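Dear colleagues,

I hope this message finds you well. In preparation for our joint manuscript, I am sending the Peptide transporter PTR2 (Penicillium frequentans) sequence together with its predicted structure, so that both groups work from identical material. I would be grateful if you could confirm receipt.
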Amino acid sequence: MSNTDKVAEVTPPAYANETSVEQVIVTDEKRDFDMDKEALSVTADGEEPNDDEKRSLRHVAENLPISAWLVAIVELCERFTYYGMSGMFQNYIQRPLDGSEGRGALGMAHQGATGLTTFFQFWCYVTPILGAIVADQYLGKYKTIVWFCGIYLVGLLILVCTSIPVALENGAGLGGFIVAILIIGLGTGGIKSNVAPLIADQYKRKKMAVTTTKKGERVIIDPALTIQRIYMIFYGCINVGSLSLLATPYMELYIGFWSGYLLCLCMFAVGTLTLVLGRKYYVVRPPQGSIITDAFKALGMMIMNRNMDAPKPSWQIANGNAEVSLPWDDHFIDELKRALIACRVFAFYPIYWVVYGQFSGNFVTQAGQMKGHGIPNDLMQNFDPISIIVFIPLLETLVYPAMRRMKIPFRPITRIALGFVVASLAMMYAAIVQHMIYSAGPCYGHPLCTASEVDGTAQGNNVHIAIQTPAYVFIGISEIFASVSGLEYAYTKAPPSMKSFVQSMYLLTNAFGSALAEALTPAAFDPAIMWMFVGLACASFLCGIIFWFVFHHLNAQEDDMNALDADDGMPDAPIEEERRQSMKQ
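The corresponding structure tokens are as follows:
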């Protein structure tokens, strides 16, 4: 029987006479879920690979469905807003309004600015827990994102209104800023915990499948590689969005902070509109009721019995507790155990996020201590996303495929450990640059002293601002390995009903990193900051090495852990082409 015959044989009667893909894309969460349960479960050549084929055949990834690209556009707009806005915060808070150090607003000096920007980062990565609970237990990912987009817009509007010159001159700046970042942090948290799993939800295949390429090569379509590709592209879109920092520093310098914030507000409105108008294209999962509550109950049973299998109904029966009624099955507990493994992996991430957070805070201040040659100090941040945009296509189209052809595994644990090591190089380079600044005149160890002022504006020591570039490049490369792999790990290791919640646990590590960075704020002064960079370099390097030794055994279990999703009741395939073929039948 041919492949198309098989498709026709299992096509649900409700869809048999349809002629358009658009007509069968659901617009209601319940219908979408029902379709998932009824949908096709086919492989490219009608068979799954055996163990020998898994070892001998090349593994490949599939292309992204259109709905995944729409989600990526929404994230691009949100990140455009987030980075374009927060990238101006250091100067907005630090420098006085029309003061001697150039255009400013709140005048809270270096430590005050670092403290508030670090708090904002912390808040943005605590709130995803709330967004995850709302999505997984009450509204579902899509509706949660829409509601939190509305909250985000309110915060942006407050930020714009309180940053205009009249508002700043009348003392509304600080109060308005604090209210705005609290509301914006709530909005971005609700979005971040859901948009990353939502984009991966658009891809439907759960099991490996054998197919033949146009050149006649038999290969294996590997869902894990497709998820990896999805998050590489997703992260690339994030960093395309973050190039807003090419525009907002100049708007800040020549027009005012309010203009940059207004641009961010307009871009976010575009993303929200895309989210709403593209509704019919998305694969949307309904909420699963008390799933979060059930998970915590199961965890409590594990702790009380000191056995991770204790919440399983089969374990309860085997131990004479047949009368106990549990709202889950053994498979759910296996998935929960896998999620706990992911959370153990995430425990090392706070150190990485302390390092990562330097590029939007202390690196900006460092750039301001150097000769700018007409380049705004907060413009240098753009070399981070630029490096990511350059290296992601190189890795995805050249390096990773070449490694797969040579049968060289590059599993998530390995990539994460490498990300920590590369991040340590960024910190070491930043320490070297700081030493160069202190070694140069006219201010030496006290940058921005009166000796460097020209027309009342401090110019920094005689070190070219471009020397800072490699620090941002190292940070960007480390993100590709550590941050992208973390997103991928959070999705693939989470139970299908808890994708947003596990994603929020991953994002929470960023909040812990921000808390650690907040504790380091007292060291954010000259010349102690140079030694802070050295300490972070050592900490990141050691964490990468320890992480590898503790978790490298999980690389061998990767396929087995990912295979648990194959039994989640969702369809193995249907990708859009398979749907289209079935509609024709």
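For the figure legend, we might mention the following. The first strand starts at residue 58 and ends at 60. Strands lie at 58-60, 209-212, 218-221, 370-371, 453-454, 457-458, 461-464.

With kind regards,
E.M.
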